[in-house]
Amino acid sequence: MTKRIYARGVPRHLAAVQHSIPSGVMQAVLMHALQLRRSYREVFLLCDIQRHSLSQAAEILGITRAAAYKRLRLARRRMDEVIERLCAPHRKPPVEMRTNDADSQPSATI
């Protein structure tokens, strides 16, 4: 079920923002967002989840727009790292095939 969010009286849906991210990844991202430092988490949730403008978030938090921008930038950087780790394909080290002269059977070495 989509949670309805109200930003200054305007209903918005999280589903519109999350349409291209699998739900399991979104849950993991939100769990990581909750682990951000409080000052980063607050502005990240206001701007990127609840879709407030940067100016609105700064006003809500009682900080300058510059401070809100810096916190949001740092939070987004950390969240980008999390998303990359969660969405990156699992990589296996390359396996070299070589033949053994004694019995001509290929043997794998890592």
Molecular structure report:
It contains 5 helices and 4 strands, in the order ββαααααββ. The chain is elongated and about 55 Å long. Helix 2 crosses helix 5 (65-87) and helix 3 (38-49) crosses helix 5. With 110 residues, the chain is of the alpha+beta class. The protein has helices spanning 14-18, 23-34, 38-49, 54-61, 65-87, and strands at 4-7, 10-13, 96-99, 106-109. Residues 1-18 have low confidence and may be disordered. A hairpin with a 6-residue loop joins strand 3 and strand 4. The strands form 2 sheets. The protein has a two-stranded antiparallel sheet. The chain has a two-stranded antiparallel sheet with strand order 3-4.
Please provide a brief summary of the model.
The protein is built from five helices and four strands; from the N terminus they run ββαααααββ. With 110 residues, it is α+β, with helices and mostly antiparallel strands.
How are the SSEs ordered, and which strands pair?
Layout: E1 4-7, E2 10-13, H1 14-18, H2 23-34, H3 38-49, H4 54-61, H5 65-87, E3 96-99, E4 106-109
Antiparallel strand pairs: 1-2, 3-4
Major sheet: arrangement of strands: 1-2
Order of helices and strands: EEHHHHHEE
Mean pLDDT: 75
Q: How many helix segments?
A: 5
Helix content: 40-55%
Tell me the overall shape.
Answer: elongated
How many strands appear in the DSSP assignment? 4
Class inferred from helices and paired strands: alpha+beta
Radius of gyration: 22 Å
| Proportion of residues in extended strands | 5-15%
Taking the alpha carbons of the first and last residues, their distance comes to 47 Å
Oligomer: single chain
User: Would you identify the regions where 5 or more consecutive residues have pLDDT less than 50?
Assistant: 1-18
Main beta-sheet annotation: 2 strands, antiparallel
